[in-house]
Design goal:
Length: 241
């Protein structure tokens, strides 16, 4: 029998006469004896491993072709299952992640893919967990890293964003004009109730113009004076005589 010394973060799986025995590792201390030619030991890394998901060309629910890549973090929870139930769980996890990524992205529209990233990540994690649980592998986290859009779609989205900004600017300007008109209406009602207020406002405006050292000053003529002259013209004019 041959002794073997384990390393931290590893599990030893011994295969003997088609009988698999899981031997939990005690770091730095555990000594494993195996029978030559009968036993075969495989070391299983129990650390969380990052599995990159290659970029996939996916058609979204609203028929937009996007290039999506992601990264998944796996951890071996059952060393025996990861050895005897799957030949190479790392490669299998990559393939499963690719198919799950295409399936999940194809169920969502482009706006959801861009705006609801956390929900899509959660759906990917759930889908991968269901398939890798039988292998003794757990999914710690799945993240969609990048969403590549066609150049034509990028230009269309830029025009849409610009139009949206113009719409908001026009709405804000219209709201400002409506509020200003409401305030002017209130001011006109107040001044019409107090005739002296109009005179004071006229004098104040003239004083503001004078402080700017302008060579031309325009004196406004009250509407009442124009009405008086118009009445006199109608009274003493040719039509009235």
């Amino acid at each position: 029998m041959e002794p073997g010394v384990s390393a931290p973060g590893l599990d030893a799986v011994a295969e003997r006469a088609r009988r698999r025995i899981s031997l939990r590792v005690i770091p730095y201390v555990f000594i494993l004896y195996i029978i030559p030619f009968l036993d075969k030991m495989r070391k299983v890394n129990l650390q969380t491993q990052a599995v990159p998901v290659a970029s996939q060309q996916v058609i979204t629910k609203d028929n937009v072709t996007v290039a999506v890549d992601a990264v998944a973090y796996f951890r071996v929870a059952d060393p025996v299952a990861s050895v005897i139930k799957i030949q190479n769980w790392f490669n299998a996890a990559q393939l499963v992640a690719q198919t799950s990524l295409r399936s999940i992205i194809g169920r969502h529209e482009l706006d959801q893919l861009l705006g609801e990233r956390e929900r899509i990540n959660s759906e990917l994690k759930t889908a991968l967990d269901e398939q890798t649980e039988a292998w003794g592998v757990q999914v710690a986290l799945v993240e969609v890293r990048d969403v590549g859009l066609p150049e034509q779609m990028q230009r269309a989205m830029a025009r849409q964003a610009e139009a949206e900004r113009d719409r908001r600017a026009k709405i804000i300007a219209a709201d400002g004009e409506a509020q200003a008109a409401a305030r002017l209406s209130e001011a006109a009602a107040t001044m019409s109730a107090n005739p002296g207020a109009m005179q004071l406002r006229t004098l104040q405006t003239m004083a503001e113009i004078a402080t700017e050292r302008n060579s031309t000053i325009i004196f406004p003529i009250p509407v009442e004076i124009i009405s008086i002259f118009r009445g006199l013209a109608e009274r003493f004019g040719p039509a009235g005589s």
